Amino acid sequence: MKPAKMPLEELMSSGHLACQGCGATQAMRFALKVLGPKTVLAIPACCWSVIDGSFPNSCIDLPIYHTAFETAAVVASGLKAGLEMRGDTESTVMAWAGDGGTFDIGLQALSGAAERNEDIIYVCYDNEAYMNTGIQRSSSTPVGAWTTTTPVTNFKKRPKKNMVEIMAAHSIPYIATASTAYPEDFMRKMQIAKETRGTKYIQILAPCPTGWKAPPELSVSLARRAVTSKIYPILEITRNGQKLKVWKDFKPTPVRDYLLAQGRFRHLKDAEIKTIEREVEDNWQRLLAKEKMLESIPGFGE
User: Fold this and answer.
1) Phi, psi of 214 (to 5 degrees)
2) What's residue 296's pLDDT?
3) Rg (CA), the chain
4) Count of C-beta atoms within a 10 Å radius of residue 252
5) Positive or negative CA dihedral for 44, 49, 54, 56?
6) In degrees rounded to 5, what are phi and psi of residue 277?
7) Rounded Cα gap, residues 116 and 134, in angstroms
8) Domains of the chain (ranges plus CATH)?
9) Prior bond to 56 cis, omega within 30?
């Protein structure tokens, strides 16, 4: 990964209402350092609608439009259109939503905005469940995980929805995944998104110690191990889906260690962990094969 220069300016202050170790707060701080003061946020119902603070207080020194759960992308689209009608072509509009408001409830609005190629940045801070309302499963919740709606006696059996593939099917100009453990990589991708015209989708893994049943001091470590265990690949898709780049320059770590560091997976038996390990490796190999295939097509992605 190429490091990005860490801007000194802080647009997020102390006094937020997040839990200790919250990955979503780390992600927001890094994003705003890149986007700067000429930024408008659309935040739907999610952890961040609480983290920001109760009106009239806010931990962010920017305009924020708090909106309904399902409407982050369409509200961001409207804000961008309104700014342009006023002659403001410089301000960035960012929709900032959790996985529940992206993978599930907000998918229709996001798909519509992407199909129209609205000039917005859409960031999904992915903590893999509906954390703000009590840790219920979302379609981002990984297979094997405990949530309050998938208890240990009936843990989640279905795999995590592949939102990256869904967004790639819309042929938008920029898609990326990131992790709070690699802030320089995330900020570099935010800079690319800021400079790119059209719909940009960035999905950043943001651990939730409360929902993952892990100590808050392990937040960054878990975000790193999710990547090095190949569970959460770091990638970029550019040129309207024609170019795929997967980050592979890391020392692999065991899937088992990542899972058992979190209480939400401690009910899993050895056979179930081995099944997950095989699925992770299969998914990783399919991803690398797709990267290689796209590289091999003459003229494709140039």
Assistant:
1) -140, 150
2) 86
3) 19
4) 12
5) negative
6) -60, -45
7) 34
8) 23-296 (3.40.50.970)
9) yes
Residue 115 neighbours by CB distance under 10 Å: 12
**Sheet containing strand 121-126, strands side by side:** 64-66, 39-43, 92-98, 121-126, 200-205, 174-179, 235-238, 243-246
Q: For residue range 135-190, what is the model confidence (pLDDT) as tens digits? A: 999 999 999 999 999 999 999 999 999 999 999 999 999 999 999 999 999 999 99
What pLDDT sits at residue 136? 98
Contact 7, 31 (CB under 8 A): no
Q: Which of 254, 234, 253 is nearest to 244 (CA)?
A: 234
Give the DSSP H/E element, type plus range, for residue 213: none
pTM above 0.90, yes or no: yes
Structure confidence at residue 240 (pLDDT): 86
Give backbone dihedrals phi and psi of 71, rounded to 5 degrees, phi first: -120, 15
- Closest-CA residue to 66 (of 48, 93, 92): 48
Q: Write out pLDDT tens, residues 9-36.
A: 899 998 899 999 999 999 999 999 999 9
Instruction: Scan for tokens 């952890």, then name that residue.
Output: 47
The amino acid sitting at 164 is: V
- DSSP line for 48-70: HHHHT-STT--SBSS-EEE--TT
